UniProtKB/TrEMBL annotation:
It catalyses: iminosuccinate + dihydroxyacetone phosphate = quinolinate + phosphate + 2 H2O + H(+). Belongs to the quinolinate synthase family. Type 2 subfamily. This is Quinolinate synthase. It comes from the Bacteria. It holds the Pfam family NadA. The lineage of its organism: Bacteria, Pseudomonadati, Bacteroidota, Sphingobacteriia, Sphingobacteriales.
Amino acid sequence: MITYLTELDTKGYIDEPIDPTLDLVEEINKLKKEKNAVLLAHYYQEPEIQDIADYIGDSLGLSQQAAKTQADVIVFAGVHFMAETAKILSPQKKVLLPDLKAGCSLSDSCPPHLFAKFKEQYPDHIAITYVNCTAELKALSDIVCTSSNAVQIVDSLPPDQKIIFGPDKNLGDYVRRKTGRDLVLWNGACMVHELFSQERIQHLRRQFPHAKFIAHPECEKELLDAADYIGSTSGLLKYTQESDSDTFIVATESGIIHQMEKASPGKTFIPAPPNNACACNDCPYMKLNTLEKVYNCMKFDLPEVDLPAGIIARAKRPIERMLEISERLGL
Ligand code: SF4
């Protein structure tokens, strides 16, 4: 165990050699049964991980699933703040994250001690934070939201309620425009959604004039202004299923395209390109998880994500408020 803990400090995951003859999918499924474990995967995970997950979803869906699962162990194929959210909602369960270094640039862009000082400047405001943030930041918040429910949550509050919104300035600005509310924004952003190249996207649109251009609200305003549809990952997925169009240029992390192709096999999905030489925009943190790391993490019950009881108690309230409002509004 000591060797493994040292390994976690340096590498962030268990690097135990795996017998190459093993069928990892079969082994992971066996471990799920043996340990009464559930595997939750975000839409941005590698397709092979999505395909063995018990539940695939965006932040809201995964939070709801984490809250109601009967499993003893939650294996979170996603990033650190998501595993923390699962722990906050199910503190009695063991929560595993295949690679502890699967962090998030957006979450990192809002250190809790600086946000606490920021809040002090606006004593008559409540703080709404996007779920893509640390447990400590959630503990400083009044309501948590996701990209699927941010607009409705802000809309559900009394019109004279003053609001600070963090950490994502692009999502905050989008909510501000949709609701007409004067939100005070924290200046944070996601490196993946800010990297799209307008020029390359325009070039693609000229090449595929009938394609619908769809984008996640973490993208910058200029890009959103040009979009045919804006939505969370599950919103984008639903849109591609329901739309009459057969071609889509997709401006979010490219992992979602796996589910889009499965849901609409006859349709074409083109990842919106970033402003570098790559064809698509992958989140380097999400893509740290591999099938091998999922297997080792389930076999050795490490790395585990745990939180102090005080943080769990304080971070739970704003998440529960989000879940209550979402349920009340039928989201
Ligand atoms: S896509 Fe952006 S917001 Fe999502 S985990 Fe990666 S860095 Fe964070």
